[in-house]
Write a structure and sequence with these properties.
transmembrane helix, elongated, phosphoprotein, 8 strands, Heat Shock Protein 90, kinase activity, alpha+beta
Length: 337
Amino acid sequence: MLVAGICFLFSDILDYHVVALLLLVTVSLAAVSFDIRPVLLAAALSALIWDIFFIPPRFTYVVKKAEDLVLLAMYFIIALFSAVLTARIRGMESLARQQEEKTREVTLYNTILNSLSHELRTPIATIIGATDNLQENDDKLSAANRVKLLQEIGGAAFRLNQQVENLLNISRLESGFLQPRKDWTDIGELIHHILRQFDPSASLHRIEKQIGPNLPLFRLDKGMLEQVLYNLVNNALVHTPPGSLVFVYASHTDNGLKLVVEDNGPGFPETAIPRVFDKFYRLKDTGITGTGLGLSIVKGFTEAMGGTVMLENRPSGGARFIVLLPADSSPSIIEHE
């Protein structure tokens, strides 16, 4: 009706055949934007408007010329066909998108299932094997072998617990109801606690820390922050060769807390940096298995606390993760060795 109104204002200089083309284009554009029913209404309405207001004699249903009557009939048929065909094309595109999404979901499901089956089966198999060995050969095992088997059970149980924790954490993030529980947290003590969970002799890495001087207490969700820092350190240990240095730094900013976890390993391909925080994303051709949930949990927990996390490659080599968390700080100052 808007297009017809504009055409009517210029009807003295516009031939009514041109008006028909303009209305037909308008119906075609409507077919791209709306469902079939309003488009069919627009097609019928445009034909009626063209007949009454533009085909001579104007302001009447009468069409005196046979060729105008044929044109009117053809216009109505073409408008209807345009609406129907466009609606069908949109329907086919929608179906194709749904099939593509379903295929992608199936592929993702298989990837997750294969990853989880390996990540969960390996520590379970280690626990079962070591337990059977202890039960069946207890009298034949030396004290050193018995301690080694117990260490294998403990390590496998710890890895299994971490995989379960990751699955639980990602489900909490997916639920959309995750709310941080803020409390005063000693960052230095938290870093000491997390780093003690890693056995330097197991990965042959060096882990160093630097806690900013006079670092105050911060009002944060300790559990979330602990998981963020643990996942970042673990990611650095997993993706760097033995002998690499992993460095953890904490400092006080004007707005809150800054945490940095960096290493001197190979770093990340530039094309992978935008995707490392995606769920189930893993670097290709690294030979390292995993579920690809660790860094997505880092991003989810950091954003749940109102912060941001960034990744960059160090100029001298290696990766650097920077976590910025807005938080209230205590007036009291704590010295850390």
